[in-house]
Amino acid sequence: MERYLTPEHVRLQERVRRFALDAIEPVASELDETGRFPWENVRAMAEMGLLGVPVPRALGGMGLDDLSYILVVEELAKHDASHAITVSAHTTLGTSPILSFGSEEQKRRFVPPLASGEVLGGFGLTEPDAGSDASGTRTRAVRDGDGYRLDGSKIFITHAGVGEIFTVTAVTEPKRGARGITSFIVCKPNVELERARSVGLGHHDGLPFTEGVRAGAREDKMGWRASDTRELYLENAWVPEAQRLGAEGQGFINFMKTLDSGRIGIAALSLGLAQGAFDTAIRYAHEREQFGRRIWDFQQIQFRLADMATELEAGRHLTYHAAWLKSRGRPFSKEAAMAKLFCSELAMRATLDAIQILGGAGYTSDYPVERMMRDAKVCEIGEGTNEVQRLVIGRHVLQEALDREAARGPISAREPAGATAPW
Ligand code: COS
Fold first, then answer.
1. What confidence category does residue 70 fall into, taking pLDDT thresholds of 50, 70 and 90?
2. Cβ within 8 Å of residue 224, ≥6 positions away
3. What's the 255 CA to ligand 1 centre distance in angstroms?
4. Considering only CA atoms, which residue is closest to atom 28 of ligand 1?
5. Model's pTM, two decimal places?
6. In a mutational test of the pocket of ligand 1, which residue from 156, 252, 256, 396 has the highest number of ligand atoms less than 8 Å from its CB?
7. Cβ atoms < 10 Å from Cβ of 13
8. Residue 340 · residue 267 · CB < 8 Å
9. Which residues make Cβ contacts (< 8 Å) with residue 158, sequence separation at least 6?
10. CA 133, chain centre distance (Å)
11. Contact 163, 119 (CB under 8 A)
């Protein structure tokens, strides 16, 4: 991966690796069991700057590139996917829409508390009747004085409980479909104020808390159990026009752009999970003896690990390439979908393979691979199901084929086959 990584990237990776080994690995299993939100580690990550990696320094972030952020998510996920999704959802879904589409005033007001990790952020698109069909949004925003009144609810929202700043979509013009959706910034207080205060972050008194915005009960999830996921209710919630994010009707498109970035984050998280499972499996295969030999010596085990290593390399190229394109301002929607699709399926296969290599031990919570398998499943679902990724990739490849065909001109104007030899 030398082609992608600078010495600064490698140093950042090393810092995060040490933190993950010292502070995350010892508590990952307990957090998975209890579902406790890891405020102490969130504080430590905030102090390391990990909650604002790609945010400009002027707005309180680390000012690093997209690949740096991707490396952080991958490194955290090798040890615990819940920590990784906390950073990823906060950064790409919570902070980046304001950074990318906000006015200067909105950026100055909302980005610094997010980038420093003083408060956590989130993103509200999905609804009970608008999952993959995201433009089927039902939440309404109706003009009221010099603002809008929002009514509806958003489901499966990361940080809906523990976060304070959210970007949500709502329909402003029902007849215009995707073009009738607008996004808004809403704030609500953290529901774990006491625990957050005990570590000195999680709440900012100066935010414009919106009456009528509140979090529902915590979801009891199969994986990512130490991350906070809830419904976010918007009940007769009035927000001033100053909290509309971008122009009316731009909300859906801006959310789609945000999801393009989010998908690279999920690819990195999936890669981390797959690598973590691989590392556990290879260690185990090297130590475990059966029939008087290390199980590593059996070709079946070696082949399985060889396949995992090959797919990890391929997934890493896809993911880093998508981040590389994004950093250079090049189109990356197709490549992000490809990276997310490939790596999430890889995470599922790799964690299942790791369990198989560990045998009975892999099926117990004495080893992290069963947790990793549960954590991997949602990577095939969240930030766009893999069916949606295939749809996005399919649309791109068809368009590229049509463009190529159009560039060749009408059939009548083409050289007869073989008339001009390419050599
Ligand atoms: N970047 C920029 N613009 C985009 C875009 C993108 N990635 N994707 C779509 N758009 C634009 C389209 O170009 C179109 O613009 P015009 O009105 O100018 O034609 C508009 O948005 C509507 O797009 P489209 O017609 O493709 O919308 P569809 O309703 O067909 O939906 C899918 C397309 C299914 C791809 C979209 O709804 C989707 O991604 N769904 C999954 C949502 C998701 O990931 N949810 C998980 C959230 S977890 S945080």
1. very high
2. 81, 82, 85, 375, 378
3. 8
4. 135
5. 0.95
6. 256
7. 16
8. yes
9. 85, 86, 89, 93, 122, 123, 227, 228, 229
10. 19
11. yes
Which residue type sits at 404?
R
Buried b (16+ CB within 10 A) or exposed e, 339-350: bbbbbbbbbbeb
As for ligand 1, residues whose beta carbon falls within 6 Å of it are 93, 123, 125-126, 132, 134-135, 178-179, 252-253, 256-257, 259-260, 333, 382-384, 388, 391-392
**Phi and psi of 288, rounded to 5°?**
-75, 130
Share above pLDDT 70 across residues of the chain, in percent, rounded to a whole number: 98
Give per-residue pLDDT as tens, 253-310.
999 999 999 999 999 999 999 999 999 999 999 999 999 999 999 999 999 999 999 9
Nearest to 62 by CA among 120, 13, 118, 112: 112
Q: Which two tokens stand for residue 327?
A: 């950093």
The amino acid at residue 337 is A
List Cβ neighbours of 241 (8 Å cut-off, separation of 6 or more). 146, 147, 148
Residue from 95, 103, 100, 105 nearest 62 by CA: 95
As a whole number, mean pLDDT of residues 78-84 equals 98
Q: Is 51 exposed, middle or buried (0-12, 13-18, 19+ CB in 10 A)?
A: buried
Of the candidate ranges 1-15, 56-70, 214-228, the one whose mean pLDDT is the lowest: 1-15
Calculate the CA 362 to chain-centre distance. Answer: 27
Q: Please report the pLDDT score of residue 408 as a whole number.
A: 86
- Is the distance from CB of 340 to CB of 264 less than 8 angstroms? yes
Task: Indicate whether 138 pLDDT > 60.
Answer: yes
Residue type, 323: A
Ligand 1 centroid to Cα of residue 329, in Å, is 19
CA-nearest residue, atom 44 of ligand 1: 384
| Domains observed in the chain | 254-407 (1.20.140.10)
CA of 282 relative to ligand 1 center, distance in Å? 41
Q: Which atom of ligand 1 is nearest to the CA of 158?
A: 49
